[in-house]
Design brief:
heterodimer; A: globular; B: D-Maltodextrin-Binding Protein, domain 2; D-Maltodextrin-Binding Protein, domain 2
């Protein structure tokens, strides 16, 4: 029987294992696998990469600082005090263990109805009138934090077709000790765990036209997969652009993604986001931020933002391991055959990259189409974000997936860290991905093993 | 008032603080910890402490040590409960200013002495939390490729084989370098140490960021660098093929922890201090991204393979590093490093290049034809090239005027002194170059 299964699977062996351009990948397999610069970086950009890394690792401080005024400005409200607090080793975050634990590399987005697709503002989420668009548990001295956020887990047993049990856990968000009163019944929440950040510059360099060409919102090819781009506000251009960063592709560029994170997570203003998110009800926040007394200088300089952006743009992707292993090649074939590759697009090509020319004209294997897909009710957060509905998520890149357990102490997957293994993550897929999920569920165990071994090689 | 635990109860609970940790009682809901530790360390302690003490939120206030001193000097000490940081000079000053509460520590568990050095407060107001050593990070594959021996001592760094292969931190820009260079200067002697540094730095890469020193070896830009050990140890633990070498005459210096006098959450503060000094708290220091040395001998049974035990160091020379003397000198060392090395590296390269060429020429002469005159010229040139404008005997007297590397006290006095140094260094180096050119064989 085992022989028959392998023979059948062998028909699906990928013709040529995919390997990325050596100028943008690194053959590093240790805990630093997500922390290396692109080999192709020129010396000037390499020096800037190191300076950006220092800022990415820097803990920001409550002002004023006599010693390091360039590093003050934290808050008034914030989630964490450094970029690496969430993006430890540039890898995935870790959700809270349970009710007595806290969110440390996970956050909660907030909004109320009124945004969403078709809205005049292009569907931008409408911030909560009191708490704003992100729950900030902490405040600087004199500014009350917004409260405590954690997750409580409930588990159920799912079964594969061969009877193998797989425990799946679902998070239930708990917000308590609210600093500014009740959130009200209309609040919409979305839990987001920090994703890995390798290869982002390469994804930024994929031409917009290529993403539009991949999109199939009306499913004209009839394969049941309806990828669509998210059109989001580009603050630098003052226009709508194709979104490609963030778990719902709600940011058009790395620079804006980073500026948004500095603003939302650390409370640091920049020229892109010049105002703190203090709402009218958050009077201490407004007073601390000087929001009512006139224009405030950006706390993050353009130079600092550019250095951090270059750092995130230039993080190399770890090279694949064991790509020639027969079982890996069987898994690679299965990945394509059952439809995973319809969204997790194996190959893209970068176009011109004026921001970092070393990224231009590269063939890359990110296993994403950067498009939004309906992932079903099981993963839905119910919170629209520009064109993304409450059931849609951007296809996450899979490159580096197999090193997650090396880089991260407690690896978890999906947008909120509910999945503890890639198999659990697959079993949470629904919506457009339901046929692929069911194919995995029905697979003979050896084929499933091949698929998982392939994922581990990425 | 909550009852204080007697010693035996504290020991049973694993507490190292004689006052007890508040275990068995509900702690306050918050503890405010001020630190300048990097987030990779802080995050792990925050997570572990909060998971061990559900209901107590650890609030981190990140401050460089001088900002921290300002905060702790306020009447309410900024609401800070615990000061926990790698800043050797800060703790004695803050203790003397009355910033801390006394701690009574069980010395059976925490000896307070590492590698022969007392690392905690003899008066009992602060306690060592970890120690870090100073040494060399080396790329063994690069050395093997070129059949070069591994450097083992500070003195080895002056060898010409490291030309273009060595990275050195800039003392005025890299926080650990004050202690690093002072350890070298005390080990080699003030004048000889500066001469060694000048010779080694002549063709070295000077690096202005602490993490970048080790990184330069990891990424192949240099083959050898001098560094505080945790950068190198962490690189090794993260899978990079580099090694760490401790010269026989080095030191392991502490980072410390104390409870603020006005701590608004005293029980939670004690619980935090107890946690970081507990066996689980100390064992966290072995984490690949932290890699600092615990101050509890008993946790070394959990150490990863290959971990040096600074309580039982093999190959170390009997070397009593004077930590207090060193603390006083960091600012002076930074200023001298700038004047002697950072501002004159091109000239150093020319000068030491000429000396090495002359020495090579002399060495190549047949032993039957010694040239004592030229040898004397080169020897005098070497002495002058290593000139340092502050004599060892004067260093401790002048050091307070420079206090720490970022302060600029007495700017006019410092500027005048630096101008004088520059003139004397230039004169000595010009004389040295003249001598060595006279000594070089004429074509």
């Amino acid at each position: 029987m085992r022989r028959i299964v392998l023979l059948a699977a062998a028909l699906l062996v990928a013709a040529t294992p995919l390997r990325a351009d050596e100028a943008v990948t690194v053959p590093v397999q240790g805990r630093d696998a997500f922390s290396r610069p692109l080999p192709a970086l020129d010396p000037v950009h390499r020096a800037a990469f190191h300076a950006g890394r220092s800022l990415f690792q820097q803990v920001w401080t409550v002002g004023p600082s006599e010693v390091r005024p360039d590093l003050d400005g934290l808050g008034p409200l914030f989630n964490r005090q450094s970029c690496i607090a969430c993006h430890a080793k540039n890898g995935r975050g870790e959700p809270p263990e349970g009710e007595s634990d806290s969110m440390r590399s996970t956050l909660v987005r907030l909004s109320v109805p009124g945004g969403g697709a078709g809205d005049k503002a292009g569907g931008a989420p409408r911030p909560h009138p009191v708490y704003g668009d992100q729950f900030n548990p902490d405040g600087i001295p004199g500014v009350p934090g917004e409260g405590r956020a954690t997750l409580v887990w409930s588990e159920r047993i799912d079964r594969l077709a061969d009877g193998t049990p797989v425990a799946l856990r679902r998070p239930d968000l708990r917000l308590s000790t609210l600093g500014y009163g009740p959130l009200g019944p209309e609040v919409m929440t979305s839990v987001r765990m920090a994703p890995p950040i390798v290869g982002l510059g390469l994804l930024e360099a994929v031409p917009e036209a290529d993403l539009l060409a991949l999109a199939d919102p009306d499913d004209r090819d009839g394969d049941g997969v309806r990828g669509r781009v998210n059109l989001v506000w580009d603050a630098a251009r003052g226009a709508f652009s194709v979104g490609r960063f963030g778990l719902k592709a709600n940011q058009p560029s790395l620079r804006q993604q980073n500026a948004g994170a500095f603003d939302g997570d650390l409370g640091l203003t920049s020229t892109l986001f010049a105002h703190h998110g203090c709402t009218a009800a958050q009077t201490a926040c407004r007073a601390a931020a000087g929001e009512d007394t006139g224009r405030v200088e950006p706390e993050l300089s353009d130079e600092q933002l550019d250095l951090v952006t270059l750092y995130t743009r230039a993080l190399a992707v770890p090279a694949r391991r064991n790509a020639d292993d027969p079982l890996v090649r069987v898994g690679e074939g299965l990945f394509a055959a059952i439809g995973c590759a319809a969204c997790h697009t194996p190959t893209l090509r970068t176009g011109p990259s004026p921001a970092l020319p070393e990224l231009a004209g590269r063939t890359i294997h990110p296993y994403t189409d950067l498009l939004l897909h309906d992932m079903g009710e099981g993963l839905a957060d119910g919170r629209p974000d520009f064109q993304a509905t409450g059931r849609q998520w951007r296809t996450p890149p899979l490159w580096g997936l197999g090193l997650t357990a090396v880089v991260t102490d407690h690896p978890t997957y999906l947008h909120d860290g509910r999945a503890r293994t890639p198999l659990e993550a697959i079993l949470w897929h629904g919506g457009e991905a339901e046929p692929a999920r069911e194919a995995v569920r029905r697979m003979p165990s050896l084929n499933r093993k091949a698929l998982l071994v392939f994922l581990d090689s990425l | 008032m909550r009852p204080l635990f007697p010693r035996i109860a504290a020991s049973l609970l694993g507490s190292v603080l004689m006052l007890g940790s508040g275990a068995g009682w509900a702690l306050e809901g918050q503890v405010v910890v001020m630190t300048s530790y990097p987030d990779e360390l802080v995050q792990r302690y925050e997570q572990a402490f909060e998971r061990a003490n559900p209901g107590t939120d650890l609030q981190v206030v990140w401050k460089p040590s001088r900002d921290a001193a300002v905060e702790l000097a306020k009447p309410d000490q900024g609401g800070v409960d615990v000061y926990w940081t790698p800043s050797l000079g800060s703790f004695p000053r803050l203790r003397d200013a009355g910033a801390f509460r006394p701690l009574t520590v069980d010395r059976a568990i925490l000896p307070g002495v590492v590698d022969g050095q007392f690392v905690s407060d003899r008066q009992g107001f602060f306690e060592a939390f970890e120690v870090a050593g100073y040494g060399l990070i080396v790329n063994p594959a690069a050395l093997a490729r070129d059949r070069l021996p591994q450097p083992a001592t500070w003195r080895d760094l002056a060898a010409t084989r490291w030309n273009g292969r060595l990275a050195l931190p800039i003392a005025g820009q890299v926080s650990f370098s004050g202690a690093l260079y002072d350890i070298l200067l005390q080990a080699e002697g003030w004048e000889a140490g500066w001469a060694l540094l000048g010779e080694a730095a002549a063709d070295a890469t000077l690096v202005g960021s602490g993490g970048q020193v080790s990184e330069s070896v990891v990424n192949g830009e240099a083959d050898v660098a001098v560094t505080v050990d945790f950068f190198a140890r962490s690189a090794i633990a993260n899978g990079h093929p580099v090694v760490l070498v401790y010269p026989p005459r080095t030191a392991f210096l502490p980072a410390q922890v104390a409870i603020a006098r006005a701590a608004p959450h005293p029980d939670a503060a004690r619980a935090f201090v107890d946690f970081v000094l507990s066996a689980p708290g100390q064992a966290l220091l072995f984490h690949p991204d932290i890699r600092r040395y615990p101050v509890r001998p008993d946790v070394y049974t959990q150490a990863p393979a290959g971990t040096v035990n600074p309580f039982q160091r093999i190959g170390a020379e009997a070397y009593a590093y004077d930590m207090e003397k060193g603390l006083n000198r960091h600012g002076l060392i930074a200023a001298l490093f700038d004047s002697l090395i950072a501002e004159r590296q091109d000239r150093l390269k020319t000068l030491w290049g000429a000396i090495h060429a002359a020495e090579a020429a002399l060495a190549a002469q047949p032993t039957t034809k010694p040239d004592p005159e030229r040898a004397a010229l080169v020897s005098r040139a070497r002495t002058l090239a290593g000139f340092v404008p502050v004599a060892g005997a004067d260093a401790d007297r002048l050091a307070p005027g420079f206090q720490d590397r970022r302060s600029n006290r007495n700017p006019e006095e410092q500027a005048a002194m630096r101008k004088d140094w520059s003139a004397r260094i230039d004169a000595a180096q010009a004389d040295a170059l003249d001598l060595v050119r006279r000594a070089l064989p004429t074509p």
